[in-house]
């Protein structure tokens, strides 16, 4: 990010905060925008304040909770991040983002069973999500389930034929499967 871009973001934030201080009628998604900017600048106190305001106003609760989850994750508080992702799932059960966030968080924490469960929950509601299928395939590959990984990558490509990473991982999984069959 250039200094000019950072300056524009800071100026936009200043305008939004001034409107909030002066008690002007909030614009659509104003608290959410302030929460995004606070998260971007790593200002936890402001993020918590604006996230609470956005939730009270009903401004995209799942998106707000995902911001809170990513902030907790960035700080190393995996339990708080997982709890925020669960709340985001409850707020928007038909959105793939919270399932993806929870699955990736638990996979990076080394809990592949929890990651598989998060992606399976998402796929039960959103069977046409290429992103969920792809990540489910990755977690299956990481846990040694080559057949499951292949199925996940194949489904990803059926839904998103141009998904290069799925194509590459499918080829690698098929090669691993062939090598295993030769043993």
The assigned structural class equals mainly alpha
Helix-strand pattern: HHHHHHHHHH
Distance between the termini: 51 Å
> Outline, from the CA principal axes?
elongated
Low-confidence stretches: none
Strand share of the residues? under 5%
What summary fits the major beta sheet? none
Radius of gyration: 20 Å
* Residues in helix, %: over 70%
The number of helical runs is: 10
Mean pLDDT: 86
How many runs of DSSP E, i.e. beta strands?
A: 0
What does this structure look like?
- The protein has 183 residues and is mostly helical.
- The protein is 79% helix and 0% strand.
- Helix 1 crosses helix 2.
- The longest helix has 19 residues.
- The radius of gyration is 20 Å and the shape is elongated.
Task: Provide a quick synopsis of the model.
Helix content is 79%, strand content 0%. The chain has 183 residues and is mainly alpha-helical. Helix 5 runs antiparallel to helix 6.
How does the SSE layout of this entry go?
Blueprint lengths: L2 H19 L8 H11 L3 H14 L3 H14 L3 H14 L4 H13 L3 H14 L4 H13 L3 H14 L4 H19 L1
Helix pairs in contact: 1-2, 2-3, 2-4, 3-4, 4-5, 4-6, 5-6, 6-7, 6-8, 7-8, 8-9, 9-10
């Amino acid at each position: 990010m250039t200094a000019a871009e950072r300056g524009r973001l800071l100026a936009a934030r200043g305008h939004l905060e001034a409107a909030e201080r002066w008690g002007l009628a909030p614009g659509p998604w104003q608290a959410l925008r302030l929460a995004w900017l606070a998260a971007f600048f790593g200002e936890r106190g402001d993020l918590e304040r604006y996230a609470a305001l956005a939730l009270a106003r009903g401004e995209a609760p799942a998106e707000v909770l995902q911001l809170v989850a990513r902030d907790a994750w960035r700080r190393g508080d995996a339990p708080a991040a997982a709890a925020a992702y669960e709340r985001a799932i409850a707020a928007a059960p038909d959105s793939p983002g919270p399932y993806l966030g929870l699955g990736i968080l638990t996979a990076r924490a080394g809990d592949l069973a929890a990651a598989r469960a998060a992606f399976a929950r998402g796929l039960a509601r959103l069977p046409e999500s290429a992103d969920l299928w792809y990540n489910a395939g990755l977690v299956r590959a990481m846990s040694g389930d080559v057949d499951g990984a292949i199925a996940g990558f194949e489904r990803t490509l059926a839904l998103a034929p141009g998904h290069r990473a799925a194509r590459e991982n499918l080829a690698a999984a098929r090669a691993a499967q062939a090598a295993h069959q030769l043993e």
